[in-house]
Amino acid sequence: MSPMRSAFAVALLAAMLAACGSTAELADPASDAPEVRRAASPPLASEPRSYAEALQAWRTPEDVNAWIGARFEYSLPRAMLLSETQRNRNGTLPIPAADVFFAAPSGVCVDLSRFAVDTLRRMDPGTEPTFLMIEFAPVTIAGNTLRRHWLASFRRDGKLWFFADSKRPGHIAGPYETTAAFIADYAAYRGRTIVAFRELATHERKLRTAATRQEREARP
Questions:
Q1: Domains in the chain: how many in total?
Q2: CATH number assigned to the domain comprising residue 60
Q3: Residue 49 contacts by C-beta under 8 Å, 6 or more apart in sequence?
Q4: Any residues with CB less than 8 A from the CB of 33 and at least 6 apart, and which?
Q5: Which uninterrupted H or E stretch holds 102?
Q6: Is residue 152 domain-resident?
Q7: In this structure, is residue 126 part of a structural domain?
Q8: What is the model's pLDDT at position 213?
Q9: Which of 5, 19, 34, 73 has the highest Cβ tally under 10 A?
Q10: Does 38 fall in a domain?
Q11: C-alpha–C-alpha distance, residues 43 and 149, integer Å
């Protein structure tokens, strides 16, 4: 083998090993923030200037998801304010409406999931957009207890898809036959025990007690 071909083979092998390492990396279990900071967002197919314009331009969940991947910014200070500890001390904080979030797309999981669910319900209610609230075994960050995490789901061709995840904005997981199947995969990805999950019509706390609690056995 010539020196040039040998160098090329070594470089190719190194790239392949690096790629394998990056895909096998598990999530940081102590944070709902994205794992990797986007160096540069890919250009969007369209750049709506307002939420009203976005509703006219977007046609599919993938359109909403692309905007989330390009524009969402995770806010750790807001995560602390919305923690279980701070809610018990100071009460709940408002979750911004979709048009407000569009204008300033920074926040945490529940902000992002509300934007996704509300937007899909306006664009295409036939996809049956729903909130998925996950209850993890609690973790404590800076003295604040966090246990709940929110995503959005939709249906297509009888299958379930999950997105609007602050941990991996711009990612759509699916298709799944059941939410429980997704939960099993998600617990492995997050490296955290999921003690319960609920599929909800709203993010509002006052309605959560009416929802059916779906318990599952703890997984390592």
A1: 1
A2: 3.10.620
A3: none
A4: 74, 76, 79, 166, 167
A5: helix 98-103
A6: yes
A7: yes
A8: 43
A9: 34
A10: no
A11: 29
Tokens of 30: 């102590």
> Can you give the pLDDT of all 220 residues of the chain as single tens digits?
443 333 333 333 333 333 333 333 567 877 888 876 554 455 676 689 999 999 999 999 999 999 999 999 999 899 888 877 676 676 667 899 999 999 999 999 999 999 999 999 999 999 999 999 999 998 877 777 778 999 999 999 999 999 999 999 999 999 999 999 999 999 999 999 999 999 999 988 643 333 334 444 434 4
Nearest CA to 159 out of 145, 174, 148 is that of 174
Tell me the pLDDT tens digit for each residue of 25-56.
Answer: 567 877 888 876 554 455 676 689 999 999 99
Report the Cα 77 to chain-centroid distance in Å: 18
Nearest to 156 by CA among 118, 187, 192, 130: 130
CB contact at 8 A, 153 and 132: yes
**CA separation for the pair 113, 58 (Å, rounded):** 17
> From the CB of residue 53, how many other CB atoms can be counted at a distance below 10 Å?
13
Is 0.85 surpassed by the pTM of this model? Answer: no
- Structure tokens given for 1: 């083998």
The range of the structural domain enclosing residue 69 comes to 49-215
